[in-house]
Amino acid sequence: MWITLTILVGIILIFTVVSVKTPKIYKERYVVSLVTIVTMSAWESFYIITRTPVDRSMIGFGLADVLTFYFSIMYRPLRFLDRMLSDIASDMQQSLFVFDPDGRCIWANEQGMKLTCTEARELDSIPEKLTAIFGDIMTAEDTTFNKTTGSGDSAKYFTLQRRIMTDSKQPYQRSSYASTSSL
After folding, report:
1. In a 3-state reduction of DSSP, which class is residue 75?
2. Residue 148 lies in domain
């Protein structure tokens, strides 16, 4: 029995150290596994101390197996990935706009806000401002546009790229535009 307890404590210590030292993208996997091991150890200890038949503890072991399988093989840390991708898009040097199916701007990064001289609470005005700068790009069929604004020394050259993303849960499409300026 002491050998079994020593192995269990060793496993709990290993998972604790790994949970602390692992990168954030994998941290949830190890923390959930650690919590599952500790919970199942407490559950089994309860049944040993109370001398309750082991058949009831099998339900707990089955749930723990499903959790362990899911978090070790199938799980993807979506909240962390969403936050990471949002940070990457926000820090891009290109302007990035995301539109809903009705053509309303639902998100723009900092460079997009600077390009259209808007603030976060003024996203509804972005389609009109983009139309004023580049012409009617919202209904165009092309996916890449080369646009020039101004002339002479004040000329600015832009490449606009349109990407249409489909949502598997919704029957509509969303558009996003990225613009790159060059001198």
Report:
1. coil
2. 81-182
